Amino acid sequence: MPFAADAHSRPAYDYPVETWLADMGAHGITHGVIAAASLFDDGNAYTLAVLDAHPQLRGTVLLPPETGVAELQALADGGVAGVRLTWRRLAELPDLASEPWRGFLRRLADAGLHVELLAGGASLPALLPPLLSSGVRLVVDHFGVPSRDPAERAAGAEALLHAIDGGRTWAKLSAGFRLPWDLAEEVAARLLADAGPERLLWGSDAPFVNHEGTTDYAAALALYARLVPDPATRRAIDATALQLYFT
């Protein structure tokens, strides 16, 4: 996969689907979802080939907002579940109430595709209302990327929980190793208490870019069990993922 010109990292190794499937299989995981990586801009060819070859997988892709109805429907028919918006590092957020974004979000909803949002928690109060008003379903990555600032973190959490209450939003407990433990624990506990497992997903964030030397797939699962210690609750979160992506 060629790197995007502004890729924030350029890993010097491959993590092909065969390695990922082996990692999952070693831990009894049967289904998976590929989250599109901003490192590759909108190069989706490898993901699409993998989805075609492995029906137990789904994926998200990166697309320009001008993408039309026919292409979106073809992607949905080919195992694509959504479009990822990697906006964590944007200096200025786009106006989602204006074109081309307004029409794009409507087309995504019509095609049955969701938005996978990676954005800083401080941005959620501004981003979530127009996303939800478009009618599109929404998966918010990485615990909502909670801010280290308590006031910003509280505002982001309130915006995320309000969105979840609307019934078309899920939050992903992923990349917890990128957060201080006390912060990951705090946010996970609130999401479990106020959103519940029916609105939560788990993700490994493999291959752990920039943290390859300090974590691996087993450690990611161990962290999940530490954050969600009740096995029945973890099974409920797993069931949520199966229902969202495979039914």
Provide key terms for this protein.
single chain, 7-stranded parallel sheet, 7 strands, globular, 247 residues, alpha/beta, 9 helices
Please provide a written account of the structure:
- This protein is of the alpha/beta class.
- It contains 9 helices and 7 strands, in the order αβαβαβαβαβαβαβαα.
- It has a 7-stranded parallel beta sheet, with helices on both faces.
- β3, α4 (101-110) and β4 form a beta-alpha-beta unit.
- It is globular.
- The mean pLDDT is 95.
Task: Summarize the entry for a quick read.
The chain has helices spanning 17-26, 45-53, 69-77, 101-110, 124-133, 150-165, 181-194, 217-227, 231-246; strands at 32-34, 57-61, 80-86, 114-118, 138-140, 169-174, 200-203. It is of the alpha/beta class. It is globular and about 45 Å long.
Describe the largest sheet. Answer: 7 strands, parallel
Spans with pLDDT under 50 lasting ≥5 residues? none
Compute the CA-based radius of gyration: 17 Å
Basic shape: globular
Q: How much helical structure, as a percent, in the residues?
A: 40-55%
Q: What fraction strand?
A: 5-15%
Question: Helix- and strand-based class?
Answer: alpha/beta
Overall average pLDDT: 95
Order of helices and strands: HEHEHEHEHEHEHEHH
Task: Give the beta-strand count.
Answer: 7
